[in-house]
């Protein structure tokens, strides 16, 4: 493999204008496959979720999953698309072992949704409108394991093993129109688009859209043209770019690579390229077949889908608030700045914070726990916030205990630690660990008296009016009560007993 | 009249992974050309008022509830596989050495 020469990003942009096309595949969260009743549950035994339909055995007849169609329509509507009055499936014919039928059931010239747009917000707040060409229904392929080569790669493998559990899982492919006019911000637009699309898909409830689990995958098509030229250059298609950061890096790398090839007088080959996470580069894959080589034809085993207009309108009415608008509303409600909102979003904490406030906690408290103690724990244990064994209602309960003065922050952290360790709900942890703030005035008073007696020199300073010295006595009381005292009340008692004014 | 050339037949044979000898290409190109010609006559009688059809029955929206049905067992699924390994279908090398 030769090292590809790149030109600097700035130089590339000085000479050329990038045009992008983004293709995103979303695996739907249906219980069953697109055309048969096999389960879609992940991580099951190899080839335990197949049947004659998804294995392509002779005589098997596919029937379309109604939730698959409904999800496709919802996605189309949320992307401001027109919904086809009538459309068909088509066979895309190709031989590759990941597709046992030797064709993929897809849609060709009659997608269920077409002609829409998605507004995305860039980091500086600018709104960029990405035009949507189409969204169509199709099915996923099986999973290959390559044996005998280095680190499981297909290159150098002696043979491959196929698990068809994934073959036939519903996919929606969403294709943009050529994205022009983004200039130097093309990679940022690509990332923002995929991020917004992911939020939208999650808000619609049609998929969890976890990119790290392959539930959402992006292909980045990119070409350059000299400034001032209308005609598009030849594009490359970088496949399976599977994180937001990678989408941005892949676009940037291809801009630099294309510019290097073009400015040295070379020509771009229309090919698929593979993205490498390690260094953000891409390498050549196969030369792209011409579309007609797939010999698409209408699928004879499935009847057309003709979504009734009243069904479409009913689905439109049920669409959730757009993620971008919801974020803006929450940002306002919570009184946070753009940067903090972005952190909350990146941490996957938006819905958890909302649920916690709905369970009665003030938003600043909900944010504080999810973005502080809980984010730290999630980070340390390599889990997502939503995977932590604590519910928003439990976080709200902890906040309520703090607000009522039953817990201080230190104790609240211990309660959360207990809940995460599976010791029960917050009240149970408080009970079992004996974590209540010492509010028994008698006990507190005794502890304060002891602290004063044990620190006579400091007590004298306070009596002499050096109120700041009270901190040391508060510390002593907190230590004596193992942190279970209300520090503010302790301070009051100390000053009172020593006749000093707070 | 639409037709099909010997080169197109060779191309389609390659896409369909069919190994055809020279004389077979000549033979099939002629036959396929005749068949396409015969089918093309349909469009001579089909006027604007006859929409193209891909299905003989006037059916739409045949859908299935999203309910799990039993799958084959892995052993059943693999029973027709020429080769298997680790409960998976074993296939020959996908990419040649390059």
TrEMBL record, chain A:
Any idea where the Asn/Gln amidotransferase domain is? 351-498
Role according to the record: Allows the formation of correctly charged Asn-tRNA(Asn) or Gln-tRNA(Gln) through the transamidation of misacylated Asp-tRNA(Asn) or Glu-tRNA(Gln) in organisms which lack either or both of asparaginyl-tRNA or glutaminyl-tRNA synthetases. The reaction takes place in the presence of glutamine and ATP through an activated phospho-Asp-tRNA(Asn) or phospho-Glu-tRNA(Gln).
Coiled-coil annotation: which residues?
Answer: none
Q: Does the keyword ATP-binding apply?
A: yes
Instruction: Write the protein's name.
Output: Aspartyl/glutamyl-tRNA(Asn/Gln) amidotransferase subunit B
Q: Which family does the UniProt entry place this protein in?
A: Belongs to the GatB/GatE family. GatB subfamily.
According to its UniProt record, the EC number is 6.3.5.-
For this UniProt record, the keywords arranged alphabetically read as follows:
ATP-binding, Ligase, Nucleotide-binding, Protein biosynthesis, Transferase
Q: Name the gene that codes for it.
A: gatB
Q: Name one GO biological process term.
A: translation
Instruction: Specify whether Ligase is a keyword of the entry.
Output: yes
SMART domains per the UniProt record, alphabetical: GatB_Yqey
Q: How does it assemble?
A: Heterotrimer of A, B and C subunits.
Transmembrane intervals? none
Give the catalytic activity. Answer: L-aspartyl-tRNA(Asn) + L-glutamine + ATP + H2O = L-asparaginyl-tRNA(Asn) + L-glutamate + ADP + phosphate + 2 H(+); L-glutamyl-tRNA(Gln) + L-glutamine + ATP + H2O = L-glutaminyl-tRNA(Gln) + L-glutamate + ADP + phosphate + H(+)
Q: From which residue to which does the signal peptide run?
A: none
Organism, by scientific name, is Streptomyces microflavus
Q: What class of enzyme is it?
A: ligase
**Domain of life of the source:** Bacteria
Matching SUPFAM superfamilies, A to Z?
Answer: GatB/YqeY motif (SSF89095), Glutamine synthetase/guanido kinase (SSF55931)
InterPro entries referenced in this protein's UniProt entry, alphabetically: Asn/Gln-tRNA_amidoTrfase_suB/E, Asn/Gln-tRNA_Trfase_suB/E_cat, Asn/Gln_amidotransferase, Asn/Gln_tRNA_amidoTrase-B-like, GatB, GatB_Yqey_C_2, Gln-tRNA_amidoTrfase_suB_CS, Gln_synth/guanido_kin_cat_dom
Task: Tell me the GO molecular function terms.
Answer: ATP binding; glutaminyl-tRNA synthase (glutamine-hydrolyzing) activity; transferase activity
Which HAMAP family does UniProt cross-reference here?
A: GatB
